[in-house]
Amino acid sequence: MTAAAQPLAEITAPFRTSSAALEVLGYLSVLAVATLCFVAGWLTLDGAMVLCTLLLLSLIVLAWMRLGQGRHPCFLFLCTLMFFQGGGLLAYCLGAEVDPLRVQLMTPNAFYLPRDDAGLVLLLLALSAICIYAPCRWNYRPFGPPSDAAVRPYLPYLYIVFFSTLPLQLFKNYRYFEYAREHGGYTFIFVDHTALAASVPLVVRVIPLITFPTLIGIFVFERRTKFLALVTALYFTSASFILLLGSRAAMFSLILGLWYVARIKSRRKPRILRLMVVLLVLLMIGDAVSKLREDEEVNTAFLPLKVLAVQGASLNVTEVAVKYRNILQPFGASYLLRELQNAFVPNDAGNYYRGRALAFDISVLLNPALFAIGYGTGSSYVAEAYVLGGTLGVVAVSLLVGLLLHFANWFSRSAAGLFVVAMVLPEVLIMPRNGLLDWFSVLLRTGVSVLLLALGWQVYRFVIPTTTGRKGGALVS
Question: Torsion over CA of 379, 215, 247 and 255, rounded to 10 degrees?
């Protein structure tokens, strides 16, 4: 920052703070008035759904405008919140869905929540979005692309590790695909994941765990677009077998995480049209994968709004958590404890017991027969927060998620910090349909992978010694 720019930043800082406070207070005021009108009977449930949808959409637009046009993970998180929790509401507002609040996920007998409970679900969704946006907006300070001078010496090593482990990852994914198809397809992953993992040797399961961090390292540290395109294309090709099997959430959240890294590294303004095309393509791929998973005809008509409504079914999980909180609440602490193990321990119907996971308990509550053959509902951080602490629990957890996203943005100022953020961000972005602490479990596993990479780096330096000196103003060792 120049000497002239620093006083200007100090002058404009109070105005940014005042603007952020007015935005948050304005949203809270609208939500408070709407809640009073709903309780008094002046606002219908249909009107509340429209209002909740407009509030979520406007927050997404504000996050885009106020937080660097995609250079903050808050924007992507609000998008996934809208997609997974509010997709049905948006489809309803556009005329493609009739009953977005009708609980029909897994259950053979669809049902509605009482009016007050349905209104509470909408309130929780809107309140969570505001509480996530507030810390990110309040503390946001723009910054330029991080310097990669100190980390570029790692690139040759990362390329060697990536291309050495990629064939093993390709073999592992193909073997998983083949084995699962032989034993019933996609649902077998959730019936007996232990048997699926045992279908390949231990070394084949362990070594590819390093492929992912090397991809992230190359994507963060590399500037040459041709090399980036090649490495990314090869990685997604190796992961295509898992996509064909029907598992899509991890791949799509990874795409969003890489998009965030690309925005942080770039000074250019994003192209909205290109972004919309990418989102449409992702919807089409997701629809095709869903049809493959359900053994439907892939060449049937693609209806984006219908796909949006289907993906928004995670709202049903939040509704069930609100309706049956008294049954689920005694296991709240157990859910959190078990989530810390999810990145290390198989999580399937074969090792189910009550309190193992919120998604499992809700699935059993709705349809135990379907759960036994591998079908489930997924989870939701909103649902889990409500089970733990009611409305205040949702507020507290959402504020913490907002702070988490703020610190993720702050750590993105350096190349090394951006690497760590990119490793965990895909799991954070999928929290609207995942557990509350799954991301932290992945962070712990990431630490193990990075430690293995660090040990490999010491071996690499011993075999291929490098000189220590100054090059371009940066220390190279």
Answer: 70
DSSP code string of 265-291: H--SPP-HHHHHHHHHHHHHHHHHHHH
Query: How many distinct structural domains can be found in the chain?
Result: 2
475 three-class SS: strand
**Pairwise CA distance, residues 55 & 70, whole Å:** 19
Cα–Cα distance measured from residue 275 to residue 75, given in angstroms and rounded to the nearest whole number = 13
Question: What are the mean pLDDT values of the chain's consecutive 10-residue runs (477 residues total)?
Answer: 44 60 91 94 93 95 91 94 90 85 86 93 96 91 87 91 90 82 69 75 80 92 91 88 70 88 86 68 64 55 65 86 93 89 74 85 87 81 94 96 95 92 93 90 86 88 62 37
Cα 225 to Cα 7: distance, rounded to the nearest angstrom: 37
| Closest by Cα among 295, 209, 170 to 245 | 295
Domain that holds residue 228: 152-311+405-430
Residues 94 and 184 in one domain: no
In a domain, 244, yes or no: yes
Do the bridges between strand 469-471 and strand 474-476 make them parallel or antiparallel, or are there none, so unpaired? antiparallel
Structure tokens at 105: 């996920």
Of residues 292, 293, 290, the one with CA closest to residue 309: 290
Task: Write the single-letter amino acid at 376.
Answer: G
Q: Are 232 and 215 in contact (CB under 8 A)?
A: yes
Domain boundary among 109, 143, 177: 143
Distance between CA 10 and CA 357 in Å, rounded?
A: 48
| 171, 139: one domain | no
The answer to whether 393 and 126 are in contact (CB under 8 A) is: no
Token pair 């409504």: residue: 309
The backbone region for 413, taken as left when phi is positive above 0, alpha when psi lies in -120 to 50, beta otherwise, is alpha
Q: Are residues 131 and 76 in the same domain?
A: yes
**DSSP for residue 347:** -
Residues 6+ apart with CB under 8 A from 36: none
Q: How far apart are CA 50 and CA 57, in angstroms?
A: 11
10 Å Cβ neighbour count for 311? Answer: 21
Q: Angle at the Cα of 314 (from 137 to 375), degrees rounded to 5? A: 145
DSSP element (H, E) containing 471? strand 469-471
pTM above 0.85, yes or no: yes
